[in-house]
Amino acid sequence: RRILLLGEGNFSFAASLCQATGTQVVATCYESEEEVSGRDGAPESIRRLRERGAEVLFSVDCTKLKDYFLPEKREFDSIYFNFPHCGRKAGVVKNRELLAHFFHSSAEVLAEEGEVHVALCNGQGGTPADQPRREWHNSWQVVAVAAGAGFILSSVHPFKADNIHGYKCTGYRSQDKSFCVEGALNHIFTRSMPRPDFQPVIYKTELESQNVSFQVPQILVDKINRGFLEPNSNHPVRTVKEKLTAELSQAFPLQNMDHCLPLLHQGHISDVCHPNIFWITLSPEETLMTEEMSDGLANAVSFSHADSCRDTDENGCGNVQEGCHIPKQYYLRPSLLPCAQAAIQKGAFVPGILHVLSGPVFRKCLITPYSMPVFHEMVLACAVNRGTENSCIQMLVNNIKTSIHSLHQTVSSFKLSLSLQEATNLETAELNDFAAFESQLSKIQYCISMDTSGSCEKGSCVGVVRTAHYDLACRDVVAVFVSLNLDFLAMLICGISDWRMLWTSDTRFLHQFPRGELRLFKSFSLYPPPYVHDVSFWIPDGEGFDEVAFHTIARQVSGEMVVAIQLIDSFQKSETGQKSLCYRLTYQSCDRALSRQEVAEMQLLFRKEIQHSLGVMLR
Fold first, then answer.
1. Which segments constitute the FDX-ACB domain (predicted)?
2. 589 pLDDT band (50/70/90 cuts)?
3. Fold classification of 201-283+330-511 (topology level)
4. Which residue has the higher pLDDT, 419 or 597?
């Protein structure tokens, strides 16, 4: 391994590292050889380095590293910079500038999978690892500074000077007063995945025996065909689904119905007018890059055959046009429950068998920690004789709870408690995730939730239970449907705190789940800094404000970097009734570097887009 050390004082740290086998050390300092030779212990350390084949360089500026190494000599596996400092009484701003230039310079000489080690005195870094922690504005803000050069903090641990043989800490330019290493921390940075440049994507498929294509909504282009549930996938969402199915198969005869589930549903705007739906416009020809669906599309599920026609807005609502035959209209499936319902009505369900459907579902939603515009739903459905549905529900839910507990215990010793509760609070955001199309199925009766305080709290609902009555072949049967959010279950079982991590393209995520094993997830991006921006505007007179569309625009322009939107102020003119709103947006990444400059550009684009799409007047 090639190791580059910067800012060495007496070269004692470099001499210690040089003792390790399999390392090639390049040790440097900012001062000249003449200045360094007079320091206590420096000549001896330099001699030991050279005897072991290390390279020693003097007068090296850490902000211009590529100037000192030929292109073929720039691929360092590790770069160490212990206790960087501008010197004398330089403030935090100048030291941040030093770090910023250093990180940019390091990116030019670091191997693709290399590490940058930065040791800082206690409190300087500004992360929660510092104890005590300084106020943010009074720290060096090391994670935010590194993000500007494309680095993320992947590990942090104590800098144990006593464990480094022969190491003697010096001060700035080896002055008599050395740096205080008590409580010091070593910050290890790695390269971040670059910011993705999502281009418009058109999918081509066969629908109702015709070749059609449609443009994927911009916020879904990186999610619509990821294949998490494919047989060759090691993704924890698939592992949870497979293991949960295997556990349930010990109690129920199972039949998998995942094949050919339609991605598109058909409906008329007069019947399906829901602000959370992604409406799709079919196109007879390809105009952009195309990608084949992995499974293809079966015929779309149809909910309406009414002949009516409307001028539609982006939410699928509008005014009926008289004398017009409405064309077929489609939307991305927001749930698999209609597919299960259609199968029952066609007589495809065998009584006594538990039928399993699973796949991704899509819907617009507000930005909250547990609201996902796409997640993998698993529907368990069975048909039973009327009057036996309650015992069926209890037996099915008990087996689900036992199976989830069993999966969780293989990963963590933390106790996960689940309970079946009556769904009396349908305003809960997590219940609304499952509550689409209440007109097509009976309303949610029960919620399977984490038993935190005896009620369905935000973030606690992992599934819901519904029932519906059918007259099939002269039999009065009740269908029991259990809908589970597989993404949320994977998060709970593996300790993943942010749903966006499930969709990361960084290979370090899946590497933690080899061969589909479920393990406790360890984040490779620690303490990502949040950035806060406010926006205020006037709402157009006489019009309501579409908050779901507002949040959807934030998701789109930021690439899911907005983690919270809060209404912090509202004002209405008494004379005119004109209303003004002020929202606070918090930007934060979970898996890659996010700099202040990037966020500023996102906020500017967001302001322009809400003005254009929502017709608001910015203040």
1. 526-619
2. very high
3. BirA Bifunctional Protein; domain 2 (3.30.930)
4. 597
